[in-house]
Write a structure and sequence with these properties.
About 50% of the residues lie in helices and about 15% in strands. The strands form 3 sheets. It has a 4-stranded antiparallel β-sheet. A hairpin with a 5-residue loop joins strand 1 and strand 2.
């Protein structure tokens, strides 16, 4: 038996990976059967899926927040519905793209048949739908394994391929993404990017048009799921350049890709036009993509979500890309160009940490491309005994670290959204911490009481610093108007956005029927992050009133970002602001 396993190391490795993921998803299905899990999808995943439930239950895409919230109240413990926002026409629009719903349609249809047959609610969320949804996610994980293996077969031995498969599925953040965020796009895009890359490789090898057509359709589907992935068009643009003798033949083949993109995105465009009044609605999210101010160092190396910090095995890409350049230059430019563009775009997203995840989950989509330079690095470093030993030690260390940190993520030690340097080293290497504490994490911005709970000096990772951010006197808010009281940049006045503002407003309002509102708004030239508004009520006309408020700053994304304070006064008499004083309480980390 052992001899058989050694002779068939690739098949054994694939069987192991398939078995582990199948067991994990079997456990999830058991939880559904036992009523221990009822939430099919929430947050972003809910935004993708509700295209199906809305279309097949109501025969339209006129989303109603109250109906959507009722579903989350019933199945997902009241998770807030934010996926639908009013567009310019006033109609409610789903802010997410519908491409993933194409891939979830078979699961929805199967779930619907079983729900109807077995007497379950035909609402898209009862047990049969939930089980079909989980099985669909597992199918795409298995498809990802299938296409990744086919790519590896074209370049590497069974031994190297087996090691690469183990690295990707257990030595990176693919595992936690697949197990904990299977409702998101990444496991689907992983499989599709694998299919795209494999089809392009086979077309270069065999020159059969079926592979080119599959590649074009796959990229079109990818762009309908995550539009920024249109950047993967660099792959055919560069990989196919020397396949054709004439420029006309080359550009004719390249034209297939935007046509396929139009084919898969046309339903989205029609939806936008009918409900939103425009063929293109580029972004309805709170965050923007600001390509002139990317957070590249944070994206790659920060303790919060740094891709290379939490998946350090990809440091092997440095020698890997060098070898890829020497041996397969045409592939080098396509892969490197796509990856560099992706990192730039991902890091330019104002929510560059991509909310709750282990490491940078956005990079999971590209692992079928990155496995190639990773494999070239392993082959190259394995040629001498010294570098071979060093490389294997590094690989097994990073593999072990990833498995350990994935478990830390599962049990809650490794926080999905608020990691810091102090907390990283506090939990490093530990799976059992009876006295586990959270006061080293990034501040909880929903809690204004953190300054009294965090003891940074005692724990040795920082200090609490207080300063007066502004102190203004004798201001007036005109009647029936909006009056700006303050506009000031956060930096360099503040050292960090881990800051609590304590504001005191002493005012006099002579109109008891129209109290007015004071707004504290954080904004950049690209976006508005947050606003806190408070009523300027008066108890006795002609006397001074005092309003004391506290609020945490949002995450500040750009150096020039500002706060502005203004009063909306609907009354017929001016409001006198005798003083506006803001004190800042900041956590300064060492």
């Amino acid at each position: 038996m052992l001899d058989f396993l050694k002779r068939n190391i690739r098949a054994t490795t694939i069987l192991l990976i398939i078995s582990v993921f199948t067991l994990k998803f079997s456990a999830k299905i058991q939880d559904v059967v036992k009523d221990e899990s009822t939430c099919v999808c929430s947050y972003d995943g809910y935004g993708y899926y509700i295209y199906l439930t809305q279309l097949f239950q109501y025969r339209n895409l006129n989303f109603k927040k109250a109906e959507l919230q009722a579903v989350q109240d019933k199945y997902c413990e009241g998770t807030l519905v934010y996926q639908v926002q009013n567009g310019d026409t006033g109609n409610p629009l789903n802010i997410y793209h519908m491409g993933q719903a194409y891939l979830e349609l078979p699961a929805y249809a199967i779930g619907h048949v079983f729900a109807k047959t077995l007497g379950y609610p035909k609402d898209g969320f009862s047990k049969p739908y939930h089980i079909a949804y989980l099985l669909n996610a597992l199918v795409f994980i298995l498809l990802g394994i299938y296409f990744l293996n086919k790519i590896l077969k074209l370049f590497f031995s069974d031994q190297v391929s087996s090691l690469l498969l183990l690295i990707v599925y257990f030595g990176t953040n693919f595992w936690t993404t697949a197990i904990h965020a299977y409702q998101l796009q990444h496991i689907y895009l992983f499989a599709l990017v694998g299919l795209l890359f494999y089809s392009l490789l086979k077309f270069k090898e065999l020159k059969k048009n079926k592979h080119l057509i599959i590649a074009a359709l796959t990229l079109g589907l990818i762009s309908s799921i995550r539009p920024t992935h249109v950047l993967l068009g660099l792959l055919p643009l560069l990989m196919l350049r020397k396949v054709y003798v004439s420029n006309w033949a080359y550009w004719k083949s390249i034209l297939l890709f935007p046509l396929a993109g139009l084919l898969f995105n046309l339903p989205q465009m029609i939806y936008w036009k009918i409900m939103g009044g425009s063929w293109f609605i580029l972004n309805m999210h709170v965050e923007e993509i600001v390509i002139i101010d990317p957070h590249i160092m944070d994206f790659l190396f920060s303790y919060k979500k740094g891709w290379l910090l939490y998946t350090p095995v990809f440091l092997l890409l440095i020698p890997g890309f060098i070898q890829l350049y020497k041996q397969r230059r045409q592939l080098f430019w396509g892969i490197l160009g796509s990856v560099l563009l992706a990192v730039w775009i991902f890091a330019s997203w104002e929510c560059w940490w991509f909310a709750a995840s282990f490491g940078s989950r956005a990079m999971v989509d590209l692992y079928p491309l990155l496995v190639l330079p990773l494999g070239f690095a392993i082959v190259y470093l394995g040629k001498s005994k010294l570098t071979s030993w060093a490389m294997m030690l590094f690989v097994f260390f990073t593999l072990g670290l990833s498995i350990l940190q994935s478990e830390q993520f599962s049990i809650g030690y490794l926080h999905p959204d608020r990691m810091s340097k102090a907390h990283y080293w506090y939990i490093f290497g530990k799976l059992s911490m009876p006295d586990y504490q959270v006061n080293r994490l990034e501040i909880d911005r929903s809690n204004v009481n953190w300054p009294g709970k965090i003891k940074p000096e005692e724990l040795g990772f920082g200090k609490i610093e207080r300063l007066t951010f502004c102190d203004l006197r004798n201001l007036k808010a005109s009647a029936g108007a909006s009056t700006l009281l303050l506009k000031q940049a956060y930096f360099p006045r503040l050292k960090t956005d881990e800051t609590l503002f304590e504001a005191q407003i002493v005012y006099q309002n002579k109109d008891s029927l129209n109290p007015g509102i004071i707004n504290f708004e954080s904004f950049s030239k690209y976006n508005t992050y947050s606003w806190n508004e408070y009523s300027l009520l008066t108890k006795n006309i002609g006397t001074k009133d005092t309003l004391n408020v506290q609020f945490n700053l949002p995450r500040i994304n750009h150096k020039g970002d500002k706060i502005q304070v203004y009063v909306e006064n609907p009354g017929k008499k001016e409001i006198i602001i005798h003083s506006l004083k803001i004190k800042a309480v900041s956590l300064i980390r060492y």
